[in-house]
Amino acid sequence: MAKKTESQILVQVSDSTLMRSGENEEIPVSKIKKELSKFLNEIEGILEEASTKTSHAAYLSEVTLSAAVHSGGKLSLLGSGVEVSAKAGITFKFTFPQP
Question: 62 near 97, Cβ under 8 Å?
């Protein structure tokens, strides 16, 4: 009987410390799931704290974040600037209910 192999996602990485820019790497889906879950848990904690710190006259209604997938499946938050426009990644849009 053939051994079942783990599903993989092909990611184009641009981590200059590990691989040449634009090189493809197959990353196990389980690794992406694990890193995505960890990333979203951390973001959730940050957003919960931010929403409690707004004044009563204003509320946090929406946040959009972008993350990059790096070599090995690590996710990182993308900042602003020239480098961001050159990277592809995952965009998350969090919408909060009105108080």
Answer: no
